[in-house]
Amino acid sequence: MNFIKKYFEHIGLTKEDIESKEIKQYKINGDGISLVIRYLDYLKEQHKHQQERQTTIENKNSQLVGQAGVIISIFTLFIPLLIDKLMDLSLMVLILLILGFVIIMFHYLLTIFHSTKTLGINKYKYATRTTKTVTGSGRKTDELSFLEQEINDLIYIIDTNSVQDNRKASNLIYATRSFRIASFSFVIFTLFIIGISFFISSKPHAIDIKSIDSSIYTKSHKLIQEQQIDYHSEIKEMSNKVSRLENKLFVMDSMYKKILTESINDSINVK
Questions:
Q1: Alpha helices in 126-213 (DSSP H)
Q2: Which domain of life is it from (predicted)?
Q3: Is 203 a member of any domain?
Q4: CA 258 → CA 157, 249, 269, distances in Å?
Q5: Torsion angle in degrees (nearest 10) through CA of 248, 251, 253, 259
């Protein structure tokens, strides 16, 4: 149970919210103008670094969303191609494959879930400089007071925005962990499928005809009978024609013999 709790914390399913920092105000208290300017330059450099860090975190989160989406698409196209072959495996192997598939898909989806949190801009309230520092009725009228106000503005911006950046960074950390687990699991899953593919025998699938529509059989049988009747009728008709032809030939042969006999007799009588 303790392992599951730590694992959930590792992938960000259970986590604590990042607390806001206590923002302090800067007072000059006799500091020289050169030192105040050094303070200001230091804060400006820190603010610039913070903006670069924010951009890097957001870009990496967007990259993870794209990479996880592409892999999920490939993965979902890859599995259906093996369904027919995998159905011949034992129940235990099928359960392991289904469990592996669920684990991989869960962690890739968790990667997208953590990364897309960064895209919810309404959930991250960043501070920025305001024109009221210059145009407001309470604006500073001397240089040191204005530098003090500018320093306090930068302190507020840096402390407030660092909390928001840390929230985005935590999402990136959890998304990266989930993506790493999913990727390693995908490699193991692929090697496992390649291994068991050597033990899958390609058996020809027999076609089992369970029932034949009686109407189709009746129509086919009737058509065959009609064709047989037509065939026998044609044979009978041809046989009749041959018989009539033979009768005619027999009559003609008899007449020819009779004529020939009469001719011979006439010739004998003449002699």
A1: 132-135, 143-197
A2: Bacteria
A3: no
A4: 140, 14, 17
A5: -140
Which domain range does residue 112 map to? 2-197
* Distance from C-alpha of 86 to C-alpha of 242, rounded to nearest angstrom: 68
Give the residue from 19, 18, 17, 21 showing the smallest Cα distance to 155.
21
Per the listing, tokens 């962690």 go with 107
Amino acid at 47: H
Distance CA 59, CA 11 (A): 20
CA–CA separation, 170 vs 228, rounded Å? 85
Whole-angstrom distance, CA of residue 111 vs CA of residue 172: 9
Task: State the average pLDDT over residues 3-12.
Answer: 84
pTM of the model: 0.66
Q: Which of 162, 197, 232 is the last residue of a domain?
A: 197
In a domain, 66, yes or no: yes
Cα gap 54→83, rounded to integer Å:
44
User: Is residue 28 domain-shared with residue 149, that is, in the same domain?
Assistant: yes
Give the separation between CA 126 and CA 197, rounded to whole angstroms: 54
Is the domain of 128 the same as that of 225? no
Task: Please tell me the distance from the alpha carbon of residue 256 to that of residue 246, in angstroms, as a whole number.
Answer: 15
Tens digit of each residue's pLDDT (9 = 90 or more) over 118-152: 888 888 888 888 878 787 777 777 888 888 888 88
Q: Which of 173, 197, 221 is the last residue of a domain?
A: 197
| CB 123 within 8 Å of CB 163 | no
